[in-house]
Amino acid sequence: MPPTILPGSFLHTKDLMSSRHLQESYKTVSIFSCFASKLKETSGKLYDIKSVCREDIMETIVRTEQLCKYYGTGDSQVQAVKNAEIAIQKGEFAAIVGKSGSGKSTLLHMLGGLDMPTSGSVFVRGKELSKMKEEELAVFRRRKIGFIFQAYNLVSSINVWENIVLPLGLDERFVDEKYIKDVIHVLGIENRLYHLPNALSGGQQQRAAIARALASKPDIVFADEPTGNLDSRASEEVITLLRMSAEKYGQTIVMITHDEEIAQAADRILVIEDGQVVSFE
């Protein structure tokens, strides 16, 4: 039976080498890999699972520092987001949960560079978005960030395939057809590629929007209430597909939702109330 690995626990090197569980678990594989060179040369020592190689395991894709967004001044000022401090790691599927008006959409839009903060900073892959010029930021968003919107935002005059590869065409980038067709197969819309968006159901349109977001292999995908316009069955299918995409392609996804049940599909849940992050677990 493989040893149980808990944060802060110690594991003997012979257990590390023999643990099938360690090699099969996604997170512990990262630990095993970063120990590999040490294990070849060292035996009979103890390693602190909580602290050793943490930087190798956790790669931060997006983080914020004292992020604030205010509208208006004086007594009429609305503090939409107040001093948000968060960090999203590579490969995470995180959900931002809050009631209507809590500030979750404002937070997501700032994380994705669609809106600028009143104060504070957003860093994506170490680059501070507010320091970029408008044209530079637009290119950065196209190449590094994917978006999935509640209203799908597909171009109605072109077919599904053309919608999916549109961001790549705008950037004059190579279309990796093998990868994109695999994404399309996973999402189950291979028979709808040459239909116009208005010929698709809501769930199919959202699948096409997910494929478009993934097509450019972005560092992170932001999903703004992706199930907001769908019935319960289609909502469940879309969340399952997002989860599957995150696992299959190692994609980092941040989703906002008001539905706590949907949020349970995520690895971590950030709760925002009155513009403040009250928990992120």
State the gist of this model.
The protein is α/β, with parallel strands linked by helices and 281 residues long.
Care to count the β-strands? 13
**What is the H/E string?**
EHHHEHEEEEHEEHEHHHEHEHEE
Quote the beta fraction: 15-25%
Average predicted local confidence, pLDDT: 81
Low-confidence runs (pLDDT<50, min 5 residues)?
Answer: 1-56
**Rounded radius of gyration (Å):** 21 Å
Tell me about this structure.
Helices cover 38% and strands 24% of the residues. It has 281 residues and is an alpha/beta fold. Helix 7 packs parallel to helix 9. The N terminus is likely disordered.
Task: Please write out the topology.
Elements: E1 10-12, H1 13-18, H2 20-24, H3 26-41, E2 46-48, H4 54-57, E3 60-71, E4 78-84, E5 87-89, E6 93-97, H5 104-111, E7 119-124, E8 127-128, H6 134-144, E9 145-149, H7 160-170, H8 177-187, H9 202-215, E10 220-224, H10 232-249, E11 253-257, H11 260-263, E12 268-273, E13 276-280
Parallel strand pairs: 6-11, 6-12, 9-10, 10-11
Antiparallel strand pairs: 1-2, 3-4, 3-5, 3-7, 7-8, 12-13
Helix pairs in contact: 7-9, 8-9, 9-10
